[in-house]
Every structure is written in C-alpha cells, then in structure tokens.
Design brief:
Blueprint (H helix, E strand, L loop, with lengths): L2 H9 L10 E12 L4 E3 L4 E2 L3 E18 L3 E4 L2 E2 L5 H10 L9 E8 L10 H16 L5 H11 L11 E4 L12 E5 L5 E6 L10 H11 L6 H18 L2 H20 L10 H15 L5 E3 L6 E6 L3 H7 L3 E4 L5
The structure holds (3R)-3-hydroxy-3-methyl-5-(phosphonooxy)pentanoic acid (PMV).
Length: 329
C-alpha cells in the first residue's frame, strides 16, 4: 500500500470538510529504547518496536487552515518553499489534501528549548496530524492518527501520546498495525536533563544515518535482539517503578545503537569530543553514587535520566543542565 492509499483507507467514507482552522499541541519525545532502521522506507515502517517518554509541555503547537497558496511559518517566520523544512512538511501534507488544488496555511510554534538537541520533527508531524483531524472534522481514533504521523516521521507516531509510549513495529506489509500507544501512566519523579553540547547542524540526518546502518553495517544484525531484550527490561522496570533498571536498559540501548553505526565505512559518527567527555562524566558520577544514566539520539548531545531526588547531585556534576519534568505542562 502507498502512503496515499493508507490515508484513503484510514479515512474510509469520512468527508474532508474544512472548518475555519484546526489547532493542536503535541509533546516531543525521547526514546529510551530506540527506533533505528526501516523495513519499508515509503511507509516509515520500523525493523523493531521502540519505547519513549514524552516531554510534557515541550513540543509543537500547529494551526492548520485552508489558504490560497501553501504557506508555512515556524515560530512566526515565513519559510521559503525551497527550504527543506517546507518541502518535507508539504510532501506530507500532499497526502492530506482533500483535492489536488487545495492549499494549506500551516503555522507552527515550538516550546522546545532552542539548540537543545531535541528532535522537533516528531512533535511537528504529530501536531499537524491532530490539527488536520480537527480542521477536516475526521474524528479519527488516536491509533489511526499515530499511523498517519508515522508516515511523516517515524518517531512522530509516539508523539500522539503523553507519558511512556511504545510504538509497535507491526508485521503487516501495509503498516496498519505499526502504531504507538501509551504503556504506563505517569511517573512524577522522573526527570530528563539536557546537556547543551552543540547546536551545529549535523552532517547526517537520522534518515540517512539509519538507512546507511541497515545497508552497510554488519553489526546491525545484532540490533533487533538487543531491542527485544531492552524493551522487555524497560517494560518490567516501568511496571516496578525501578529507576535503576530503567536507566541501565536505556543507556545500554542508546550506546548499542551508536555501536551499530560504527560498523559502516566511513562510520556514521554523531559524537563530538564533548559527547565522549559527557558520557565519561555520567559514568564517573554513577561510580560516585549518583543515580544518573544517559541516552543519545542521532546527534552529539547527551540527555540524562535521573529521579528528582538526585537533581541537586546531578547539577553538581553538570551545572549547565536544562531539566525537564516529562509529567508537567
Ligand atoms: O523519526 P526519525 O526519522 O527522526 O528517527 C528518530 C531516530 C532516533 O531519534 C535516533 C531514535 C528514536 O527512536 O527516536
């Protein structure tokens, strides 16, 4: 099934009658067990399942309306049609047009701290899908909205929900069983610390990085079994509210993902010297008794995981820390 056929299937006989505008907010998310590798590039179907924590009030607000021409603003600035953000977003919005000559105005604003190395594409695509649902009055279930958001950016499937969220890889070729859903309620003591190491644009985006890893790295063969192990461990840790167990599974999963990338030649290498120094410092802090673990995505920045009662100890080791409470607005 093509992405367009997936949209037609999910909408069924619902009409797309545009109201005045549709507005919605979606939280960003950070994977504790990572999505790395596609089994279908057109539909964004993953090789494995993944599990994330949403970032509460940090995310994207989208307002979508009918318009004379396709227009995009991000944080109030108009984006040129040639810009890659514009092309990527409208390639996705093409799927949602009720008629070929229908044009959108999309205004997005982000509450994600600038240059913090937190992905904004997940919350952007998720908020746009929810805004489209409101604009056109579809009333689709969250599971179907997750499938739609997935076709914009894989990790966007998880940004439909708050808290801990699992994206099920699914097995079907049409991807209709590849959607996310919440796995556990809140954990108010859980904290994420963002270390700002670099805001330079990375050389390799996540799409290219994962495609190269799947195609070239002999180490990728080990990845699905590692994810299965870490997912089971993470779910058990969530059920038991066992922070140490969760942190260990998340850290080893993130570092193993980067390990698969090193098997390419030239290696897919997102780390900077500052990243390695931060990883070492997290290990040192832990050896000194601080309950802190790390995770990293397709970039050089390091994110810390710790319980709230360790916050002051973590800040002593990492003074320039931005702390996010995933369960606050
Ligand atoms: O959804 P994408 O295409 O931006 O890929 C996300 C990849 C990672 O952030 C590295 C892992 C994840 O599960 O979010």
């Amino acid at each position: 099934m093509t992405p367009a056929a997936t949209v037609r299937h999910l909408l069924g006989d619902r009409p797309s009658v545009p109201g005045e505008a549709g507005e919605s907010f979606a939280s960003a998310n950070i994977a504790l067990v990572k999505y790395w590798g596609k089994r279908d590039a057109a539909l964004n179907l993953p090789v494995t399942s993944s599990l994330s924590v949403s970032l509460g009030g940090k995310g994207t607000r989208a307002r979508l309306a009918a318009n004379g021409t396709d227009t995009l603003t991000i944080n109030g600035a108009e984006i040129a049609p040639e810009a890659k953000e514009f092309r990527r977003m409208f390639a996705f919005l093409d799927l949602l047009r009720p008629a070929p000559d229908f044009r959108f105005r999309l205004d997005t604003t982000s509450t994600i701290p600038m240059a913090a190395g937190l992905a904004s594409s997940a919350s952007a695509f998720a908020s746009v899908v929810m805004a489209a649902d409101r604009l056109f009055g579809w009333g689709l279930p969250a599971r179907d909205l997750s499938v739609l958001a997935r076709m914009g950016s894989g990790s966007a499937s998880r940004s439909l929900f708050r808290g801990f969220v699992q994206w099920h890889a699914g097995a079907r070729a049409d991807g209709l069983d590849s959607f996310a859903e919440p796995v556990a309620a809140d954990w108010p003591d859980f904290r994420i610390g963002v270390l700002k190491l670099s805001s330079a644009e990375k050389k390799t985006g996540s799409r290219d990085g994962m495609n190269r890893t799947v195609a070239e790295s002999p180490l990728y063969a080990a990845w699905p079994a590692l994810v299965a192990r870490d997912l089971e461990e993470t779910r058990a840790a969530l059920a038991a509210r066992d922070f140490t167990r969760l942190g260990r599974a998340a850290e080893r999963n993130a570092l193993a993902m980067h390990g698969t990338m090193l098997g390419c030649f030239p290696a897919v290498l997102y780390w900077l010297p500052e990243s390695v120094a931060a990883i070492r410092r997290v290990m040192d802090a832990r050896e000194a008794g601080v309950p802190v673990y790390l995770t990293m995505d397709a970039g050089p920045n390091v994110k810390l995981l710790f319980p709230v009662d360790a916050e002051s100890a973590v800040r002593e080791w990492f003074p320039a820390l931005d702390v996010i409470n995933p369960f606050a607005d």
